[in-house]
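Final report, Chapter 2: Outcomes

The project's central promise was a pipeline that accepts a single protein chain and returns its three-dimensional structure in a standardized token representation, suitable for archiving and comparison. That pipeline is now operational. To close this chapter, we reproduce one record exactly as it appears in the project archive, with the input sequence first and the structure output second.
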Amino acid sequence: LSEGSTEGKKYPVLYVNHGVMGGEDDLTKGWGICEMASYYIKKGQVQPFIIVFTQMYTGPNERPAGITQQAMDYYDDFLYDLTESLMPYMAENYSVAEGRENTAICGFSMGGRESLYIGMKACDKIGYVAASSPAPGIVPAQDMFLNHRGSMTESEFKFATTPYLLMIGGGTNDSVVGTFPKQYHELYDKNGVDNIWLEVPGAGHDASVGTPLFYNFIGHI
């Protein structure tokens, strides 16, 4: 729970998702997420809220053995872990303000991809979405690792209920996901989905994109 909490009050929730092969501790340090939240709260620009750093992989082991389609499917299945298990657990055990107006999701790389995917599939539960350097594979795509089958078609790549805020960030020197983040942005534009695109010149596949993206995202949720 971020600073400024009061007993008996209910608080909005931000779910933060890690990259491929990662875990729930990956974004707790070096990205400034907790520090930025505390900064905004102390200035009175954002009300206190709960941050949940997730473990997304739903396969039988803690981490996938490699980047395969089955591993991607296990990551996509975090949609059900989140909406059917984690969110109810949070509501039962913490002072959570429920509803899409009180729920945000963001992430880096694979976590960015899943934030977009879950944001679209659970738009009745989540109202704010951000993706830093999101990995390919929501729609069919080919990268250096895999011929991604895709979880939806390009025409399906949109929200049944428009998010209050949708942000995507990418670096111009990203050698891991390349231009796929920008392609997501352009596909949202094509499908009539309002979104904010942040392109960081010279940035790679790291926090040099995520820190400014999450700074702006946290300041406006």
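Archive annotation: The first helix runs from residue 33 to 43.
This record, like all others produced under the grant, will remain available to the consortium after the project formally closes.
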